[in-house]
Every structure is written in structure tokens, then in C-alpha cells.
Amino acid sequence: MLDSPPRVLRNLLIVDDDASMRHLLAVILTDRGYEVRAVASAEDALKEVAQRELDLVLTDVRMPGMGGLELVRELQRAAPDLLVVVMSAYGSHDTAIEAMKAGAYDYLGKPFKPDEVVLVLRKAEERERLKRENRRLRTELSAAYRPEYLVGGSEAMQAVLRQVHKVAPQKTTVLLGGESGTGKELLARAIHELSPRSSFPFVAVNCGAVPAALLESELFGHVRGAFTDAHKDKKGLAAEADGGTLFLDEVAELPLPTQVKLLRFLQEEEIRPVGDVRSRKVDVRVIAATARDLARAVKEGEFREDLFWRLNVVGVKVPPLRERAEDVAPLAEHFLSRFALLRPELPRPHLSPEALEALKAYRWPGNVRELEHAMERAVVLADGAEIREEDLPDPVRAGGASSAEAPLPGRDLSLKRGVRELEGQLIRAALERTNGNRTRAAELLELSYRALLYKIKDHGLG
């Protein structure tokens, strides 16, 4: 016999006009830990459902008066979340299909062994567990990306959040602009979670991080044999986002040939994998983001004008942190609360007055992401509950000096650490000067693009 699992579905109702069958099922299921009630008719079953909370109904198909399939339909109207399993000694495959169409969860043919009944209930329990887990994860995800959790009481940020609320319910394409680290992906996720598409995938792709030769295949997929090493069909990210949202980060880095394919995708709402001769429709909302001035990129011939207007149906500009200095303190407290989990044995960390003043004086060229990394570093390095000024990164302690200035000699005369801080400051300055264009920043710094990406990650700027 099968061992009894921890109960998920406790309260069961058996509906069968055969008294011996009711008794047999009641004995089997009571022995397995279920709370069981039994009635002889569908009419009595509806009364039970109206009077008490039930998890599952196990009903015969053929009964005097209202039959089992009609009972399923009535229960769908009266208690749509209630699971129903139908039983029949006269059944066939057609009866099972009809029961499923009526709304039954599963079908059990008579005669059956006790273990068969238990297995059906276990399947139902697993389904309910997965449903609850899915609801929990969706609730947590929604909470994490809900606009009120995008901390910012400044008028500049509140204006952005008002736009987010207005545009979220529509399928309208949105273009998010703003410097690196301002939280554009967070806003994109908030738009998705506030939309009717929230139960479908949110798929993000960094257009600047995928090699140009692979980008079309990454976005739209390919068929086997389309090119060397294409050993099997591949589903593209646009197809994975079907029904949901496709987020194109750093969209300005798209090569011109891929821009043409993206424009066609936006116009026709269909994809054609590389090497395929057929297209297929997909239902995808597109949100794009860029740290560059796309209008200027259009004038310079680096970005297609028609694609720009397709993406920029609603443009949302995310302000840099230096333009909403009043948000620095609440953001810092928000990050401290999160990173306090790294040291649960200590009291929740708090900022000293001197540390708070240093945070407010700094210009934050890396924006919210840089502040987040600074708070994580401070929590890790702090000796006690208080975050002191010396726990902050050197550029922040410098008192708001320009990010292009070298760190002045002070308590720490380490050449190694000084060179590293200067490298980080120069990278920040280059990204500021180029509005986040990493290709141009690499040219200013006389680095390869790949080396710059590595250093950005190493310094926590990307």
C-alpha cells in the first residue's frame, strides 16, 4: 500500500447513490487521514457545498435525478475553485473527455483499486501545491516590482511612476531613457507586473551584450541547419515572451540589420526564425531602454528613424539620482534593510549623521545601482550596527568631488587601492560624458569594448 503524504486536501465529499460504494470510499480515505462526508445524490451534494468548506468532490456519473456531469457544471458555477473527480462503471474515453470539458479535474473508472483513488488525490494535492506556490511567487514578484517599492518621494520620480500607472494597462510600446543605473529595468518590470500580461513571461535581453552575429537568432530563433553549429531548432526570446513582455535593454546598440528585423516584428507582430521560410504570429509587448540619446543617434545615422518612432510611442525619462537628491536617504535606508539579511546576528544597520551627509553630498554618477553597491559594501564592512563615513567607498567619502578627479591622499595611501579607485572614477566619467554609450566610452578610455564590460562589472557599475 502507498504511504500517506502530508495532507493538502483534507475535506472530501463522496457523491454516489450506491451505499456500499460510499462506505468503501469513506473507509479507504478516512484511513488515509482525510475528513470524509458522503451523500447519495447530486442535490444533497450542492447543499453540502453551500454549507461547508470542501476541498474536493468525488462523484459518480450516473445517479437518479441530477447526474454527475451536470453536478460538475453546477459546481463550476457555485464553487469554481473546488476540485471534482468523476467516477463511472459505464464510462469510456468519451465519458472522460466529456467530464473534463464540463470542468472535472480527473476521471476514475470503476472498478478501481484503493491505491488508484489515492494516486488521483495525490495528483490533485500536487496540483494545488504548485498553484499555491505559483501564487506566492507571483505575489512576491509583484511586491518586489510594484511602483510603491520603487523608492522615491521626489516629484521627479513620482511623475515617472504616474506615467507607469497610465501606460501599464495598454499594449503600447514604451521607450525608457536615462543614465546607466537609474532603474530602467525595474520600471520595465513594474509596467509588466501592473499589466494584464503579468501572468505571462517577462523576457529581458541586453542588446549590447550579445554578439551582433548572434543577435537575430537570439531574438527570433533559428531552424536546424540555418548556419554552422545550428544542430537543432532554437526558440527565440520573442517567442518565449509570447503573451507577455519583451524588454530590450540598451536598444541603441542594435546593429542596423537587426534594427530592420525588429521594425518588421513590431509592424507585423510576427517572427521568422533564421533559416525558416514561414512566419508566425506572436502577441508580445515591447519595452525598450537606452542610456543614449536616440534622437541624436538617428541624426548621426546610427539608428533607424522609423524604428525610433515605433519604439518611442510613449517615452519615459528616468531622472538621475543627482536630480532627486531627496531620494538618497530613503533609498539608502531601503538598501540597508535588504542587506541587513547578510548579517542576521546583528541589529539592523543605520547611518551615522556623517555618513548620511556624505551620501547626500555625492553626485552618484552610477545612480541608484552605485548607491545599492555602496550600501552593500558598508553593511559588509561595518563593525557594528552604525554605518560610519569610513565604511563608505572612497569617492563618496571625498565629499562630492567630481567623478573625474583623482582621490586625494588621506588616511589610506595604498597605491594599489588608489589606482583602482581612480580607474573606477574614470570609467564613471567616461560613461557620464557619453550618456552611457559603452562603445564610445571604451574609445575615450582607450580600452577594447570587451575589456570595458569586464571593468564595469568588476567595479559594480553595470
CATH topology of the largest domain, by name, is: Rossmann fold
Low-confidence stretches: 1-7, 400-411
Our count of helices gives: 19
* Named CATH architecture of the largest domain: 3-Layer(aba) Sandwich
Radius of gyration from the CA trace? 30 Å
Average pLDDT:
84
User: How many strands, what sense, and barrel or not for the largest sheet?
Assistant: 5 strands, parallel
Distance between the termini: 57 Å
CATH top level class name of the largest domain: Alpha Beta
How does the overall form come out from the CA principal axes? Answer: elongated
How much of the polypeptide forms β-strand, as a percent range? 5-15%
Strand order of the largest sheet: 2-1-3-4-5
Instruction: Summarize the amount of helix as a percent range.
Output: 40-55%
- CATH superfamily of the largest domain, by name, is P-loop containing nucleotide triphosphate hydrolases
Number of strands: 14
* Structural classification: alpha/beta
Please indicate the count of domains. 4
